[in-house]
Write a structure and sequence with these properties.
Elements: H1 2-54
Keywords: Membrane, Transmembrane, Transmembrane helix
Length: about 55
């Protein structure tokens, strides 16, 4: 009975760790995507300003 409890606890801990890692990975991916989007928007803005100045 004790062994079963131990195995169950270990399984819960492992699952919790995996979930935490997945969440961190998702956060990292979201951050990268947001940074890329911001960079693209800034580039477009700069290009528009340059076009305005040229024209």
């Amino acid at each position: 009975m004790v062994m079963v409890m131990m195995v169950f606890m270990m399984t819960v801990v492992v699952v919790a760790v995996i979930v935490m890692e997945a969440m961190l990975l998702v956060v990292k991916v979201m951050t990268v995507v947001i940074v890329m989007v911001v960079a693209v928007v800034v580039m477009i803005g700069v290009m528009v300003v340059v076009m305005m100045m040229v024209l």
